[in-house]
Amino acid sequence: MEASNAITGSFDYEILAEIGEGAYGKVYKARHLKNKLDFVAIKKIKLEKGADRNGVPSFMIREVAVLRKINTFDHPNIVRLLDVCASCSAQELDLTLVFEYIDMDLASYLKSVPECGLPREKIRGVMWQLLSGLDFLHTHMVIHRDLKPENILISSRGRIKVTDFGLARLYSFNMALTPEVVTLWYRAPEILLYSSYLSSVDVWSAGCVFAELHLLRFIGAPPQEEWPENSPLQHRSFWSETGTHTQNPIANMDELGKDLLLKFLCFKPMKRLSAAEALEHPYFRTEMEALEHPYFKTETEALEHPYFKTETEALEHPYFKTEATSRVVEVWP
């Protein structure tokens, strides 16, 4: 490994490979020089002097501030910031952030999913962890504001971690927040319409991710006829992908999943589920608990379903009418 690939300062790391690139710098997979088994992700930011009045962009200061605050709790679904280092030369300022290393982001993971899609239990596990992370953030008055598959990490063991807090904000209820946040396909209506907003924008984004886990593509934009009149953002601003109507969301989603999705994608933010409320939704309960949801029929009605026919009734099915199968039935112990 070349000497230029070693980062030294308050820590010592060896860069192994570039794994991402952004507007201000690159992200690398690296390992500690002393303990070769400890892998990390390093975000290196290079800034020319004078390019920013304060030297370091506000989004970097915000990311470090938010992570320093929430990392004291070490939540399992929030990426950990391990170290920060800054160095300065005559021409440029280098800022290095060191994070725990996670195998890939959810966007890359979804590209590898076969056409048959993800198993329902896998989707349920991803969403439970994502909402647990969001609930933790919102409890500590943090809005992520850029939730999307690229900013959700997934480990080889299926551990989900929310990352990239460059647009995150610590908020209060009387704070005005900028509308220029969240990648377009995951942006809540109140942001699109330049209205005031709070943590429910993250829940809308989580709903978009939930749909994408089933569809393996964007859920799409509302049709032109449903677009609000006099909106500051015109419908033509969106790519012309046909949207999936929320009243008939996704064919391979179970009924409890559809109910949860509709509550994520509620146009009125005050009626939208919070992350904490979503975690209590029957979709996440065990099979027996889920059957107690009002969606399901009463026990008496449910038992009248053909699935619960008696053995005698079942054996009258045409499947058993051939001579061969009839003989099998007769001798069946």
UniProtKB/TrEMBL annotation:
UniProt keyword Transferase present: yes
Entry GO terms, CC: cyclin-dependent protein kinase holoenzyme complex; cytoplasm; nucleus
Example GO molecular function: cyclin binding
Record-annotated Protein kinase domain positions: 13-284
Record bears the keyword Chloroplast: no
Binding site for ATP: 44
Pfam families the record matches: Pkinase
Gene Ontology annotations of biological process type: G1/S transition of mitotic cell cycle; regulation of G2/M transition of mitotic cell cycle; regulation of gene expression
Catalytic activity: L-threonyl-[protein] + ATP = O-phospho-L-threonyl-[protein] + ADP + H(+); L-seryl-[protein] + ATP = O-phospho-L-seryl-[protein] + ADP + H(+)
Domain of life: Eukaryota
Keywords, in A-Z order: ATP-binding, Kinase, Nucleotide-binding, Serine/threonine-protein kinase, Transferase
Gene3D superfamilies, alphabetized: Phosphorylase Kinase, domain 1, Transferase(Phosphotransferase) domain 1
Record PANTHER family: CELL DIVISION PROTEIN KINASE, CYCLIN-DEPENDENT KINASE 21
Family label: Belongs to the protein kinase superfamily. CMGC Ser/Thr protein kinase family. CDC2/CDKX subfamily. Belongs to the protein kinase superfamily. CMGC Ser/Thr protein kinase family. MAP kinase subfamily.
Protein name, as recorded: Cyclin-dependent kinase 6
Protein species of origin: Acipenser ruthenus
High-level lineage: Eukaryota, Metazoa, Chordata, Craniata, Vertebrata
